[in-house]
Design brief:
It is built from 20 helices and 15 strands. The protein is an alpha/beta fold. A hairpin with a 2-residue loop joins strand 6 and strand 7 (163-166).
């Protein structure tokens, strides 16, 4: 069959990400394209990352005349998993255009899985929920010979009469090495390369080595890959990286796994293979503090070229970590941070504010954690209730009509909590300002005149420090005012 694949990550609809300019090709979409092409179908990609309107798909539909449109969002990208309404509406617009052209329309995404009836009301014939590749293989094969019986294909949802039907859940793949390499040739990686080099001076690509996460943080939604953990072999991953290096000459890799290198011995073998094949690049991963303290994880990461490890520190309050079912301790966060630094790897923290039960003493504890450990980078969010999580069920009664952010910078608290949404907006600004002061002081200490001479870098940070201090004082004052307003209201 002639199949057009696309996704809904329009960078133009997310001003924050457009400013950051760290675009990655739609990995899950490219993986599915490779699978369908392996089955003999004629496959084309309409990559919307740099497009400015969902209407951009119209000429492709008109000229290429596909029989099937597949909208497959990247389940490896946390931005897609946030289920932003800007992207949802753009996806619906593309589905409508394809339906008018006579296409069968199929969608696979975290958002579609969470909102199946809404999507089936928007010119979508089928939703693929759960892991996508085998379900699409069976569905497209059935479409090629006539009208499929969706009840016989696991992992599908469709409309029947006035209701919605779902087939059985699809079993997850255990042998990920059986998948073909993502169809990188379908994406115009020169656009990505140019965007990265113009903004950052280097080129980063994305790669997935695993699927799923076995840990049970109660706010974490896993609508695609669930709680099971399956890994590709180091050999399979390195073969893909060697291909990407030979074809596109990248400098950096974002390993977009929820948890990198959980399997015992995996990271050590990965480092050995990179050395054997003389593959040299820097990379960043996501991991957990407790895992970094096991099985000599940090040393082989450093040997492989790891630059940054992002940890879900979440909070400086053990009370909040326990309420989240995080399964880590503040002591483990501290030890992991020191272990990374000892091996020349930069620690980075994900922080989350607004979890139920959080009070000002918990927030101060998080600020103290930053001051004590001083990570290289931070990412801040407020607690975001997504369907399928225990956290969502616990706050559902206090939610209004709004259940998703519009873009990744909205950071709107969407349930009733002890402090107001305005308080958390201001807290977000203040924590960033506080962090900039800490980072600037650290850079001045590390690269001061005693070590490096009066460098431009050192002078620039010296001049920036008073500005960052002033901003931190101002945002702290405003935060205090909002806290006092809350206390004065007696809520």
């Amino acid at each position: 069959m002639k199949i057009l694949l696309t996704h809904t990550w329009f960078m133009c609809f997310d001003p924050k990400q457009q400013s950051i300019m760290e675009p990655y090709a739609p990995l899950a979409t490219l993986q599915l394209a490779a699978v369908l092409r392996e089955d003999g179908h004629e496959v084309k990609l309409h990559d919307v990352t740099f497009e400015t309107s969902p209407q951009s798909i119209a000429p492709v539909l008109g000229l290429w005349q596909p029989e099937v449109l597949i909208v497959c969002d990247d389940g490896f990208n946390y931005l897609s998993k946030m289920c932003l309404t800007n992207m949802r509406e753009a996806g619906w617009a593309m589905c409508s255009l394809a339906k008018k052209q006579g296409c069968t329309v199929v969608v696979s995404s975290s958002d579609a899985t969470d909102h199946i009836p809404d999507y089936l009301d928007q010119d979508v014939d089928y939703i693929v929920w759960g892991e996508a590749e085998q379900t699409f293989r069976e569905l497209v094969a059935a479409l090629a010979v006539g009208q499929p019986d969706p009840g016989q294909i696991d992992g599908l949802a469709w409309k029947q009469g006035d209701g919605v039907k779902r087939s059985r859940a699809r079993a997850l793949m255990a042998q990920l090495d059986s998948l073909p390499m993502p169809a990188w040739d379908l994406a115009d990686l020169k656009k990505y390369q140019q965007a990265w080099r113009n903004k950052h001076g280097y080129f980063s690509v994305n790669c997935s080595t695993t699927r799923g996460c076995p840990f049970k943080c109660n706010w974490c939604a896993k609508p695609i890959y669930g709680n099971r953990y399956h890994a590709r072999s180091p050999e399979h991953v390195v073969a893909e990286l060697q291909y990407l290096m030979e074809q596109y000459g990248f400098d950096y890799v974002w390993f977009c796994d929820d948890i990198f290198g959980l399997k015992p011995g995996w990271v050590k073998r990965f480092a050995e293979l990179l050395q054997e094949r003389n593959l040299r690049f820097r990379f960043k991963i996501q991991s957990r503090a407790d895992l970094l303290l096991k099985d000599e994880q940090v040393a082989p990461l450093a040997a492989a070229g790891c630059d940054i490890v992002w940890m879900g520190a979440e909070s400086g309050s053990q009370k909040i970590l326990d309420a989240m079912d995080k399964g880590i301790t503040l002591e483990e966060i501290e030890k992991a941070t020191k272990a990374l630094r000892a091996h020349g790897i930069k620690p980075a923290f994900f922080l989350q504010f607004g979890y139920p039960g959080e009070r000002m003493e918990d927030i101060r504890a998080t600020l103290n954690l930053l001051s004590q450990l001083q990570p290289e980078e931070i990412g801040i969010s407020v607690s975001y209730p997504l369907p399928g999580t225990r956290f969502y069920e616990s706050v559902r009664a206090g939610m209004g009509e709004k259940s998703n952010w519009t873009d990744s910078d909205e950071l709107q608290l969407m349930f009733r909590n002890y402090y107001s949404p305005a308080f958390y907006k201001q807290l977000h600004r203040h924590v960033h300002n506080h962090f900039r002061v800490l980072r600037t002081r650290r850079r001045l200490a590390a690269f001061g005149p005693a070590r490096k001479g009066l460098t431009v870098f050192w002078l620039r940070n010296l001049l920036r420090l008073p500005y960052h201090q002033w901003k931190a004082m101002r945002s702290g004052w405003r935060l205090k005012k909002l806290e006092q307003q809350h206390e004065g209201s007696g809520q």
